From TrEMBL:
It comes from Leptospira fluminis. This is PilZ domain-containing protein. Residues 2-107 form the PilZ domain. InterPro entries: PilZ_domain. It comes from the Bacteria. GO terms for molecular function: cyclic-di-GMP binding.
Length: 118
């Protein structure tokens, strides 16, 4: 059973979700592997080696078709196998109303497009 509270969607490859991630001693531009209103999975080729990922990170999220918005989040380790592949979770801890609206609309749009395509 899936214990997630939010629907997760996988962005279309030709419409990536870009994340600018600013943490304690690092700045990355990453692509989200999946997205929900509560967070996302990100692929981090360098696995955050040597970075302090235990404090909050600032994000600028660029969803295709929407204006970029800022948020604050926490990096979460996923299972060891996923982390070994450079996959990490990013949980939103602060997001403004506009960002929540954009995420909600983006997730609904992708769910609907997948249904029509499927």
């Amino acid at each position: 059973m899936d214990k997630r509270k939010h629907t997760r969607v996988v962005p279309f490859p030709n419409q990536p979700v870009q994340i600018q991630l600013m943490g304690n001693g690092f700045l990355d531009i990453l692509i989200a592997q999946d997205v929900s209103q509560g967070g996302m999975a990100i692929l981090v080729p360098h696995h955050f080696d040597g970075c302090d990922i235990h404090s909050a990170v600032e994000l600028v999220v660029s969803l295709p078709g929407f204006k970029p918005f800022k948020a604050i989040g926490l990096i979460k380790h996923l299972s060891p196998g996923k982390a070994a592949n450079g996959l990490f979770g990013l949980k939103f801890t602060q997001i403004d109303a506009k960002g929540k609206d954009f995420l909600d609309a983006f997730v609904k749009k992708l769910v609907s497009q997948r249904r029509m395509a499927g």
